Amino acid sequence: MVRALLILFSVSSWAVAGGVEGKVTFAGSAPAASTFPVDRDPVCEKVFPGGVATDAPVVVGADGGLANVFVTLTGVPAAAVPPAPKTPVVLDQKDCRFLPRVVGVRAGQPVRVGNDDATLHNVRAESVANPEFNVGLAPGKSVERTFARAERMVRLHCHVHHWMTAWVGVVDHPYFAVTGADGRFRLAGVPAGRYGVEVWHETLGTRQGTVTVDGDRPAVVDFRYGAAAGRAR
Amino acid sequence: MTPKRLWFHRFAVVWSASTIFLLLAGAFVTSTGSGLAVPDWPLSYGMVFPPMVGGIFYEHGHRLVATSIGFLTVLFAFTAYFVEPRRWVRRLSYFAVFLVCFQGALGGLTVLLLLPPAVSTLHAFTAQTFFSTTVVLALATSRAWIEEPAIPFASTPAPKGVATAKLAFITTGAFFLQLVLGATMRHHQAGLAIPDFPLHFGRILPPLWSLPVTLHFAHRTFAYVVTALTLLLAMGVLRDFPTRPRWCRFAGFLSSLVLVQFALGVSVVWFHRPPWLASVHLVVGAMCLGTSVALSAEIVRALRAARSPFGTPENAFGKKVYA
């Protein structure tokens, strides 16, 4: 009975669900990319001519938009949370990089990492709330794992190619997004209410804000990072 | 010295020197962050010879060198069984076999458990213990050890000599402790936890005491202690044992090594821990320990000679068998 009421409440909330959108910007000039020796891998040397791989965590668009920022709501009531989907979130190891670099996944939803390169990769998950793992991936192979508990953020790393890093935000509700190249994000279907908004960037750290969702019009919240922001972890 | 024992000694020297190369290969695994580049064990990506690309080169290369040293160790113990008349030398070579097997298991365990610092640190400590064992065996099989009569310890000026001998053992213990501190710091990724030198975040004492900072500070501070102990030991040996040229050579070499090691440690901080520098720092640390162990072994030999009615037990045994 209680379960039925909760579902009814959730459905009625979705009926008036709005959204949250905004933009994350970065003020100042982006730090220079880190460089890494490719170390005798002909496949990656084709991607990085000269044998020096680059990795730029801070990607800033022409209008200051900051890419690869994980955005999530906080304070979402459990009753408003639909079950986690069973379709996996997919990451690829392609051109000796993780693509995409930052993804969000529901707790309990599978994550699939595939190796699209003609070289060996591994996937090491550095996690605190979930079991860690380290899996080798031959060309064309993939691995599927599920993070059962919410955690921001799980780091995926390839120890064969040290510059290869990706981040997985594991969230216990569906209201999360990753900023695109223009720094914009949109969370759709958010039930009416007042929420916290947290944004996370791998080197610039976190920012918090609040937002009130009321009706069908999207609530807008923007965030701004500066060049002096600290490291997240 | 019979040709058989001469070749046995040469084998011991090659084996011990090869172990330095193994230490260097292991150091590169950690310094380059390649410890998990191969996720499985004992095979590598299900293969005996995977493509040696990226971090796999360091991790699998370390495994190959370690396997070779393992075979050399078994072969050495096997040879010792037939060639070596001294029971303690044979037993020490069997102990080396145990150590190398234990070390291999630890290496596999640390990969499968995703590099827990406790297991990785024990792996590093066992590596240093194994290397020290090879040094003692190389020394004990040498012509000088077997054929030259050990000067009984009591024949030296007793009070000063005894103090210096004790200092040698204390210094060896201090080197072991310093290597454990270094390995613990290394496996907690605390090599640059304090980014400046000689101060700590611009102060005499660090302003915060997180685990990485504490480990780094402990390793750095104890480096002063070990350096001071080594220089005191060298002065003591030169003063108290001028008639023992090999001891003086060990002491001189050790004090030179420890100064190089100190400079390497400082350089690791100043140059932001480039992998080759951090790896050389580890290897020179092992050489310091090995030299200190060698000097201590010589002192133990002299002490045993002082207690034996025949001079050194080895000499008495050697004369009986080979004279």
Describe this structure in words.
- The complex is a heterodimer of chains A (233) and B (323).
- By secondary structure, chain A is mainly beta.
- Helix content of chain A is 9%, strand content 46%.
- Chain A is built from 2 helices and 19 strands.
- Chain B is mainly α and 323 residues long.
- Chain B has helices at 3-31, 54-83, 87-112, 117-140, 143-147, 158-187, 211-240, 245-270, 275-307, 313-322.
- Chain B is flat and about 50 Å long.
- Chain B starts with a helix and ends with a helix.
- The model of chain B is unreliable at 311-323 (pLDDT under 50).
Oligomer: heterodimer
* Rg of chain A (C-alpha, Å): 19 Å
Q: Counting H and I runs of at least 4 residues, what is the number of helices of chain B?
A: 10
End-to-end span of chain B in angstroms?
Answer: 9 Å
Give the overall form of chain A. Answer: globular
Round the Cα radius of gyration of chain B to an integer and report it: 21 Å
- Broad shape of chain B: flat
Major β-sheet strand ordering of chain A: 7-13-12-9-10
Element order, helices and strands of chain B? HHHHHHHHHH
Q: Give the tally of β-strands of chain A.
A: 19
Share of residues in strands of chain B: under 5%
Please tell me the overall pLDDT of chain A. 89
Note the main sheet of chain B: none
**Helix vs. strand class of chain B:** mainly alpha
Low-confidence stretches of chain B: 311-323
- Helix-residue proportion of chain A: under 10%
- Approximate strand percentage of chain A: over 45%
